[in-house]
Amino acid sequence: MLRRFSLLSALLLSSSLASSSALANEVSFTASYSTDQFRGARVAYRFTDIPLEMPGFLGSPKLYVDMGLNHWQDSNDTSDNITAFTISPVASWHIAGSERPLYLEAGIGGSYFDKTSLGNRKLSTKFQFEDRISLSWQFSKNSDARIDFGYTHYSNADIKRPNDGLDFYWLSWVHPF
């Protein structure tokens, strides 16, 4: 089941990349860690040319849609792992700097997990909400690449119990096309 899910997710992600190259223009690679001793990796594609504008009272952030494939494992039992496909709209606010800007980013989206537990964490449903917040820094004025540091929480919002959720701190390298 895990292999079918991973293969299907990879096919969906790659077909999205091929069919919408006019809109999609960033890729990110992420390493993540949880205080529950889970570690993982993520690859994501960001569609940044979204023709929508946020209401002015929110400070006019830029919007993008982030689609990713996550894989985590229990550091105490490496045979225990979980994979998730995620999609989230994300708002990005420029908060400092011009040559090497710093952004605050936040979003709430959805995810589909291939199973409902990792280690001692019970999720109950394969569908989980993804809540995220991060800082994104363009570390070089000669490159548009950025480093993101963030926090993500996965939960089913008590649709079904138990709802232990998962929490991750992560570091990403983001490369625009």
Q: Work out the strand percent.
A: over 45%
Share of helix among residues? 10-25%
* Structural Rg: 16 Å
Structural class: mainly beta
What strand line-up does the widest sheet have? 1-2-3-4-5-8-9-10
Number of helices: 1
Q: First CA to last CA: what distance?
A: 33 Å
Q: Please tell me the CATH architecture by its name.
A: Beta Barrel
Number of domains as seen in the coordinates: 1
The first-level CATH class is given as: Mainly Beta
Poorly predicted regions: 1-23
What is the H-and-E element order?
Answer: HEEEEEEEEEE
Say how many strands there are. Answer: 10
Mean pLDDT: 87
Please state the overall shape, judged from the principal axes of the Cα atoms. Answer: globular
The biggest beta sheet is recorded as: 8 strands, antiparallel, barrel
Q: The CATH topology is what? A: Porin
Structure report:
Strand 6 (117-118) and strand 7 (121-122) form a beta hairpin. The relative contact order is 0.19. 10% of the residues lie in helices and 57% in strands. The chain has a single domain (2-17, 26-112, 126-176), classed as Porin, CATH 2.40.160. The protein is mostly beta strands. This is Acyloxyacyl hydrolase. Keywords: Signal.
